[in-house]
Amino acid sequence: MADVEPDEHLQWLFSLTWKAIFTTNYDNAIEKAYALNANPTQNPVTICSSSEFRDFDPRFEVPVYHLHGCLSPGGGGSVLITDEDYATFREERRMMFEKLKLSYATTPILYVGYSHEDANWKMVTAELRAEFAPSTAPMSFRVVPTTTPIDREILAHQGVVTLDASLDEFESVVRRELGEIRVDPVSLDKIEASMPADLRAAFRDSPAPVARLVRSWAYVNQAPFHKEPNIGAFLSGDHPNWALISQGVQFERDVEDDVVDDLLDFATQNDPKLKVSVLIAPAGYGFRPA
User: Fold this and answer.
1) Which among 59, 30, 37 has a CA at the least distance from the CA of 47?
2) Which of the residues 73, 140, 194, 259 has an alpha carbon 20 to 30 A from that of 29?
């Protein structure tokens, strides 16, 4: 496989930004695809055995877990080939498969060119589904040229949606529907700089959900309490700013108490045991179960 180069479609796939990559291939085609990209968003961190685990920066690097080992130089020792190898895989690669289970449980997975016949993968995912029961893991997706009706039904029952397409067809659909998907590390740095200091560690681990959270809610610990209260705008019907709230400049509107009381009554009538906490934000009132 040393003289085989990944084609342009495989190079496109690994030009996208991934949280982690798991492969059962022994070759280094994935690493080659990154090397051929003149301006990658991430650098691959190859991990072929549990002993090769190390820290990496998720903003700039992506771990590539070779679940069955590597044949490339420095590939971490043995590979899984025989039935005996499969029977003893847990000891040498336990951490790698535990990492897979964690990713499977918390993140949608995109399978590309994968038959779902690997014995280790079946065992790990079966264990995880048993641990999740009666809940289900996040939905995953599988891109393959063809799938038999029975396999499609079995995989759907396991939470895997099959998309019948070749890689170049899948690329065409993604480009048409979503355009060019690229998250540059420098862009993440700019977004992180706007994050509240207390949330930056969480942002580095999971940038997308933390960014959505901060866009939808105000982080009160670092709200701009020092600004001038917007009393005039508030009396004209605008939302109060944090300075007005913090300084206790109370101008309750005629309907405010009635709306709050009605919502509290509605919540407790539907479930007398339900405790309701009121979240006051510049955008108004919000309610959630305590």
Assistant:
1) 30
2) 140
Quote the CA–CA distance of 205 and 56 in Å, as a whole number.
11
Instruction: Share the mean pLDDT of the chain.
Output: 77
Alpha helices in 51-118 (DSSP H): 83-87, 89-106
pTM listed for this prediction: 0.60
> Which own/partner pairs from 77-81 qualify as long-range (CB within 8 Å, at least 24 positions apart)?
77/48, 77/49, 79/26, 80/120
Of 227, 142, 184, which Cα lies nearest the Cα of 41?
184
Which structural domain range is residue 200 located in?
185-216
84 and 207, same domain (yes or no): no
Helix or strand holding residue 164 (H, E) = strand 160-164
275's enclosing H/E stretch is none
48 and 86 belong to one structural domain: yes
What distances in angstroms separate CA 178 from CA 173, 175, 213, one per listed residue? 8, 5, 22
Q: Which of 20, 13, 214 is nearest to 105 (CA)?
A: 20
Pick 274 or 260 by higher pLDDT. Answer: 260
Burial of 236 by CB count in 10 Å (0-12 exposed, 13-18 middle, 19+ buried)? exposed
Residue type, 183: V
Helix (H, G, I), strand (E, B), or coil: what is residue 119?
helix
What strands, in cross-sheet order, belong to the sheet with 110-112? 110-112, 140-144, 160-164
What's the pLDDT score for residue 286?
Answer: 37
Of the pLDDT bands very low, low, confident and very high (cuts 50, 70, 90), residue 270 is: low
Residue among 274, 279, 269, 268 nearest 289 (CA): 274
Q: Do both 88 and 205 map to the same domain?
A: no
pLDDT at 13: 92
* Residue 269 included in any domain: no
168, 193: one domain: no
Q: Which residue has the higher pLDDT, 185 or 69?
A: 69
